[in-house]
Structure formats: C-alpha cells, structure tokens
Design brief:
The protein is mainly beta and about 250 residues long. The protein has helices at about 160-165, 170-175; strands spanning about 5-10, 15-20, 30-35, 40-45, 60-65, 70-75, 80-85, 95, 120, 125, 135-140, 145-150, 155-160, 180, 185-190, 195-200, 205-210, 215-220, 230-235, 240-245. The chain is built from 2 helices and 20 strands.
Amino acid sequence: RSFDAVLGIQCDANGVVWMLDNGLRSKLTPLLAGWNTRTNALERVIYLPAPATVEASFVNDLAVDAARGVAFIADPAGPRSALIVVDLKTGAARRVLEGHPSVIPEDIDIVIDGKTPEMKGPDEKVARPRVGVDPIALDSKNEWLYFGPLNGRTMWRARAADLIDASLPTAALAQRVERYADRPICDGISIDDAGNIYISDVTNNAIGVITPQREYKVLIKDDAVISWPDAFAFGPDGMLYVVLNQLHK
C-alpha cells in the first residue's frame, strides 16, 4: 500500500527514517514504515492493528531508540489515550498506560489569539478539541521518555526501560510515571544534549523551554510568524527547526 496520512517522522541513529501513518484518510490499519537512507531501501513495515490500536486511535508522533530497537508512539485516543511500544525487530506492539493521567487530555480549552478552535467529531457534532498524549521525546541518553497530552499543563516522564519491560504489571508501571514539570499546552517537544526540553507553546504563539531545573520560560514569541508550532528537529548546523502548521486556521 502507499502512504495514506503520515504525521510522525523520526530519523534514528542508524539513518533509518521512521514514518508513522495513521491511515485515517482511507480508514486503513495504522502502520510504521522505515526507510534506510544509507542503503536507499525499505527497512521494514510494521502494521499496528488491535489490540495495539483501538477504534479511536490517532497515532500521531513517535520517539525511536535505535540502540534498543524500540519505538514509542503517542496515541491520543480520548479517554483511551495511551503509549504504544513497538519492537522494531519483531514488529510486536504493546499498548501501555491507557487512561493514565499522563496521557489523557485535561478539560482545558486551546485558546489562540483570543479564539477557541472547534472541530467536527465522527457524529458531525462540533466541539472544542480535547487531545490526549501528543508531545513525546527521548532524552539524549535514551533513559527517559518525556510526554503528555496536548490539552494539558504537565510534562510527564517514564524510564524507557520500564516501558519496554513487558513483565512489569500495569499498576506497577503506572506508579513509576513521574510528574516532571509545569508546561503550557503544546503539540511537539525536542530535547538537547544538556537536557533542555523545547516546547511548542501553541496558545502563546511561542517557542519555550523547560530547563534542567524544571522551570519553563519563553524563548521566542512572535504573533506574526509563529502560528501553532508543532514538530521540532535539530539540524547538523546546530539550529533547531520547527514546523508551523497553522492548524487552527
């Protein structure tokens, strides 16, 4: 099959570009596809059917640990929001932390330039969006996974080793999730080698950062240029690039 609706893209340390296709445009099974930029060939295609995904799934973004051969996927599925842990070698996928406070949306509005975006649901009713886990990123040592709902004001984290451990009971894993810091409503994050977490400050038309001291501050605010900042990527020139998707427009 060809790609249908790709949202998340990550290049791992081995030069494989992983693309997350939610399949919603044509109501297809979500998949994760890897293209090896060194061999210029398809690395792998991993389908994500139930029980890894559910009816309300909207697989959105991902973080890749090439050393362990694992991908962590954010699935904002309303009250059933969860993380999906994927073994990139076998294709096995598990749904974890479903319904945990760290992944489900908080009951807060997204207000941009004084207006609250609205969207139609499957029932054609118009409502203010409540989006679960979306921003997701691993630190430079692949030790901690940072994440949280788009509609939320808390940055959470969990050890990658705990999320990968399939023998860890659900309740025990839930207890190991940590509240890391306050943050604004955000759509995407990225982390540098010093542990700074860059934040797409959606409602403030800004780019911010959570410092290693766990304090949030605005780095750049520009109402004329920054319009719903989303995904980040560090370039080889040391620059941090950000997508401005203007979703509310």
